[in-house]
Each structure stands twice: as structure tokens, then as C-alpha cells.
DNA-binding protein (Streptomyces microflavus DSM 40593), 282 residues
Amino acid sequence: MSTDFQKVREELGRRLGALRTESPHGPLTGTALSAALGWSQSKVSKLENGRQTPTAEDLRAWADATGHSGVYEELHGRLKGFESHIRSWRRQLSSGHRPVQETWNAVTADARVLHVWDSFAVNGLLQTPDYARHVFECYATLQKSPRDTEDAVRARMDRQRWLYQPGRRLNLLLWEGALRAQVCPPEVLAGQLDRLMGVVGMDTVRLGIVPFNTALLLPPANAFWIVGEQLVITEDWHAELWLDDSPTVALYLRVWESLSESAVFGAEAQRVIARARQAIPA
């Protein structure tokens, strides 16, 4: 969990603690508040100490129980402020993968330029339906989320229309490991690499491959998207991070440029893809 996220959650916890001790009916102990709410004492403690993220319902109940019903909107605004940047997979995938894909479609729809680094799988804008299907199945199993695989695949394929709109530009860097990761059957991976071979040279795509044997200015760390140079989206196992402050976006652009210095493009990129395809087990 990010330091910035934890700091904001702790600040919200301190605000909750102040509301409890400054109740207009007299200070409430944690025990008294937990009894009034029907919660465990540990939940009250975790919320006040920033060790648990409250829900909107938790915040309303807290405001009412401490006699500060009028501050609910302020508390809810704080919650939305940091949840808009830390988007947990548990919550996002509660209704399956399709809504997540539709959110991505909306975010990228108006962007004219994307800078993307992918270090673990082929990027969704260039995935074949079969490859995407296996990726969604992997994550549905991990997150124990509803399996709406076919709807999610259709939504991801719909996003690929972006590539065929005039004035768009996908600047994509792929770590060679993404070409070789066997997250699908061999025949599906072969078809996916054939698809990549075909996009080299597209007017709207600049595809670079960072080979295993090249010198690196930076380690090939987590994948990320830079959307229109205003928003960075990156992810971890537990959540997506949406980062929109200018210094952070500028940092990720520098990371992308550094990685691009180690990449190969054009015919040389096709040769790296071809070697990966030849290495697929029969």
C-alpha cells in the first residue's frame, strides 16, 4: 500500500477520533462507541489508527453516533478523495471484469497519445481474443471474482477500435518476458505473437521490445499507462493506482523514456518476437 495512501487514511482516522472525543453529548470512549454501533472494539481502533478503510456506511454511522451528522459529507469527500486514486481489485471486480474494462474504455476514449510499459503480459490494446480470455480467467481465479469472461473480452476488443482512429498514437514498450510468459496454451501464445508481428509498422502504433540481453538504465519494474500525459495508471496485486499530480506524471514519462533507450523497434523488434515464437513448446 502506498505511503501517500496510508498517510491520508491515518488523517481520516484522526478526524474520526476527534469526532468521538468531541461529541456534543460528552466524550465517548471507544468501548461506548463500539457498543452504540454494534461493532467490535477492534474495528473502532483500526479505523481511528488508519489500519482499516471505512465504507461510506461506516462513516455515516460514525457521524450519527458521535452527534456530528452534519460532517458526513466532509468525511465521505475524504473517502472518495483517496479511493479515487487507490482502486482495490476486490471492490472493482465485485461485479466481474467487464465493468473494469468499460471504465478503461471511457478513460482512453478521448486520449490521443498513450505511453505504455508492459513487463508481464502483452498489452490489452494488442491482445487477441483467445489470449485476453486466458488472462481474464487467471485473474478471476486469483481474485475469486465473478466470471464474466466473454463480456470482458468483448469490452477489451471494443477498446481496440481506438487504434484505428486518425490522430491516435500508442507508444508501447514490452519487456521480452511478456512475449514468453506462458499464461495461455502454446497455440494461443503463437497466435498472439503473430498478431504483434503484424502491428509493427502500423501508423498508430510504435512498438518497442526491450530484449533480455540489452543494457538497462532502470530495472524492468511494474507496468504502467500514461494517458494523454495527464494520468498515470499502474497496478499491484491488490489495487490499481491512479496518479494525476504533475510531478508524478513527469516522473513516469522519464521512466518510459529511459526504458525506451533500451528498446528495439521495427525489423529488429520483429526479430525478437520471432525468436520468442520459435521458443514456444511444441
